[in-house]
Predict the 3D structure of the following.
Amino acid sequence: MKIIRYQKEDNLAILAAVDHKELIYDLPFDHFEEVLNEAKRRGCKVVKVIESEIATISPLDVKLESLHLLDPIKAKEVWASGVTYERSKEARNYEATGGKLDATTFYDKVYDAKRPEIFFKSTDARTIGPGEPVFLRSDSNWQIPEPELGLVLDSDGEIIGYTIGNDMSCRDIEGENPLYLPQAKIWKNSCSIGPAIRLAETVEDPYRFEITCSIYRNGEKVFEGSAPVSQLKRKLDELTEYLVRDNIVFPGTVLLTGTCIVPPNDFTLQEEDQIEIEIPGIGVLKNGVKNQVDQNTVVQ
């Protein structure tokens, strides 16, 4: 069972459920957070709420691919995990040492430490959904997407569902100084989430998810990488436990779990590139790439 949001012709956003047959059912909720609240009120799992709501209604007579999908959740906060895969550690070391592959840095310490790296990534105003453009940061010359499995959490850190995240990253800014991490990670349209939330109760083993990232330029594929979530060094529950520790976590918070797919060191995104991140069982998150249209625009 998956949860999506889509836009109707009148620009109305609709929350809907997609069953294992890809049948689509409109739900009587405006946002996924309302589903979480209803599950708490009933004292049951989210999937039970969804099943009870769609049991007495008919599916829509449309195909999923025909819908204008939106970000499936309006997360107040998106957090992210760093250096959780060996490939990520290698990439961070390359940035920090100027290409000395045999050098060791604090990233090695983070990879081996008991405490994981967890950092603030985005807010609702900075996060986009499928089909919207991610923006290139104007003061960076080395930018890449970071395809990641995203965890959708309840306020107590329980994993409610899984989604796909693109944690856009400026490798040159972070490599210059690790204290620049917020600038290397957070700017307008620097995070993409979607296209669906796969409910946790319907996933037998999240470590069996396979992530694939493809980047197209002028219609040609210029990069493709794939890796299983089983390469993750840390357990998902370990990451969520550190996020909620002594913290306020809003219902529907998204925690990105780190990347295991990194383009070659001589690669940087360009305007008009197309990014596609796929996790079978969740969907394909597609975003174009744009330069900042108006860097002085303030989102209200």
